[in-house]
Amino acid sequence: MYDMKALYQARSVEDAVALRLAHPEAQIIAGGSDVLVQMREGRRAGAELISIQGLDEIRGVSMDADGTLRIGSLTSFSHIARDPLIREHIPVLGEAVDQVGGPQIRNIGTIGGNTCNGVTSADSA
Ligand SMILES: Cc1cc2nc3c(=O)[nH]c(=O)nc-3n(C[C@H](O)[C@H](O)[C@H](O)COP(=O)(O)OP(=O)(O)OC[C@H]3O[C@@H](n4cnc5c(N)ncnc54)[C@H](O)[C@@H]3O)c2cc1C
């Protein structure tokens, strides 16, 4: 069903960078809601993938002491939509990502994937 050459599971951001250096043609995969659809359609045939799904260090929303709001690239749409910091400081972002696809897509789709896919229609962009 998926024409995949290899799947590497990153254990940390440093590990992901090392895997990318070792496999420069490999594609990062987060939630996979874009990448897996493209693979199923036959695009990216024979791709090597580096999964970052397990990297909790780049997941979540936080605020620094100086008021800087940080949104990890691996944070899902459903997380962002209900996060108290987002609701308080940038509710329009929570409202925008709550419009993406259906509940399943909002649970797996990440803001990093949505902005890195380069599609101008991306709701989080
Ligand atoms: C049925 C369906 C409905 C959808 N509806 C909408 C919609 O209404 N609005 C909308 O905006 N989108 C929609 N999408 C698109 C999709 O859900 C989003 O683009 C999603 O946010 C992608 O995130 P992901 O984690 O699944 O990315 P992936 O598929 O894992 O990756 C997408 C791209 O981003 C790159 N990438 C991912 N994370 C990183 C990272 N941390 N650093 C560097 N590169 C990275 C990958 O290499 C890849 O090129 C829909 C998709 C489906 C299948």
Give a short summary of the structure.
With 125 residues, this protein is an alpha/beta fold. Helix content is 38%, strand content 16%.
Determine Rg (CA atoms, Å): 15 Å
Through-space gap between termini = 31 Å
Instruction: Tell me the structural class.
Output: alpha/beta
Secondary-structure element sequence?
Answer: EHEHEEEHHHHH
What bound compounds does this protein have? Answer: flavin-adenine dinucleotide
Mean pLDDT across all amino acids:
95
Give the DSSP E fraction (strand runs of 2 or more residues): 15-25%
Record the strand order, biggest sheet.
Answer: 1-3-2
| Helix amount | 25-40%
Oligomer: single chain
- CATH 2nd-level architecture of the largest domain: 2-Layer Sandwich
| Distinct helical segment count | 7
- Taken from the alpha-carbon principal axes, the silhouette is globular
Q: How would a textbook summarize the main sheet?
A: 3 strands, parallel
Please tell me the total number of domains.
2
Using DSSP, what is the number of strands? 5
Per CATH, the class of the largest domain reads: Alpha Beta
Query: Could you list the spans in which at least 5 consecutive residues all have pLDDT below 50?
Result: none
